[in-house]
């Protein structure tokens, strides 16, 4: 019986949140705007219009490459990638081919082949029997991150995608919002017959997936489809497919192109780029601390549970709120509990958060005489809980503490209540 091994690589597209588009001055904030209102002769590909590269988009691409441990090509260029499709007004896309900005990176065990910059295309809108084109998205800066085929399961892909999204957001170069299409996944999938076999002779690409869960389901469906074909002695067709999230299946779109089909050649209207060491050092000196490093710091220095540290470090809002609250608490895990369990409105203004933190974490003064009276009352009224504690049932202690705190109407330090109660129970 054959042992099958999924072989999966990823192409991830990330729209950069620059103010203007990649090669013109049009507003890049197109989402939700009226169709074809953020356009000009450059992004519409009109004759005679010349592209001018967006410096900020190039710098942000270099930051992404650095965060993914890539080598930065000191000399790089843009190329023309030719293909005909209604959403591509020029008949070619300005992209990068053999000299991308960033190459040979790594994130955990996954190798990054390249990180390059290109322009996004327009968007097709299907209306009953007609298909319309909205060119507002055409020309928006688009980073493509290409991995090696190092994934062996959909779970690995999902985990990698979530980690990458967190990195992109910490860099503040994109909101990486998959629902809006500013981050899109395109898995390339094939299945080997056994673990020692060379790479399969085919691959199937699934285009434009806008959800990590959809990506997982699409990959699982494809792997199962490939195995059924291989079991019958066939080879899956090398093609591009789409994922139908309603039916939970993939559908064929077209046969998959090879690089020579695009007739790449250097973009003649944009000279090559040459980066000096001084320029790159200056750019990278402002790199923020990345999520994995933040997670390690939270576990090592703040003594947070690994699970909570991961959640807080990989959510910009959570981490921001954590840094506000932690200044007012000796026990940082208590802060993490409040954030992770969503016991606080994280959308409150900073002043309100500080006020809440002082209420939550400033030790309360305790009236000892009143406390002793409250403890005596609670013990007299809850003899079974007292007996349970004395035979080793620790849960009863938390019950009794809760009853005392209620009797004190919250006007007592919980640690003092616990210590006093234990001394009385002995």
Q: How does this model look, in words?
A:
This protein has 426 residues and is of the alpha+beta class. It has three domains: 278 residues, no CATH class; 73 residues, no CATH class; 58 residues, Orthogonal Bundle (Arc Repressor Mutant, subunit A). It is built from 13 helices and 16 strands. The strands form four sheets. The chain has a nine-stranded mixed beta sheet with strand order 2-6-7-10-1-11-12-13-14. The chain has a three-stranded antiparallel beta sheet with strand order 5-4-15, with no helix packed on it. The longest helix has 20 residues. The radius of gyration is 28 Å and the shape is elongated. The model has no long low-confidence stretch (mean pLDDT 92).
Layout of SSEs?
Layout: E1 5-15, H1 55-67, E2 71-72, E3 75-76, E4 79-82, E5 92-95, E6 102-107, E7 110-119, E8 123-127, E9 130-134, E10 141-147, H2 154-171, E11 183-192, E12 204-206, H3 212-231, E13 239-244, E14 249-255, E15 265-266, E16 273-274, H4 277-284, H5 291-300, H6 306-313, H7 316-325, H8 332-340, H9 350-361, H10 368-381, H11 383-390, H12 395-407, H13 414-425
